[in-house]
User: What shape does this take?
Amino acid sequence: MNTRPMVIVIIFVVLIGGLASTRAAAQNIRVSQAVVCQEVVDRTPVGAGDVIPAGSEQIFCFTRIEGAEGETAITHNWYYQGALKASVTLPVRTSSWRTWSSKTLSPEWTGEWMVEVLASDGMPLESIIFFVQ
Assistant: This one.
């Protein structure tokens, strides 16, 4: 008896099941808080606002994620005047998780910025527009 087709079917079912559970976990998560700030102290954003002072060397995007079912990830995409400057993938390990990424700024990078928060499947969860001036 040839068991090869059965093994292929089992592998396919396991892979599809894994993708479905990852997608389901990503679809249930939501961003309950998203801010751009000047620092994060004791897992709390400090100096949050829509305007970051020019000359700041580093800025942070802080997000609080709710509803994850098992481990997953989110991505922070940092855009300056429409151009992607950084993409940071961050783990989410529980149903209520705080995480953040940072961006080092060049002095000439003043003007409009945006951070887009994506689920592990690429689904947009939140976006934050702010200005460095």
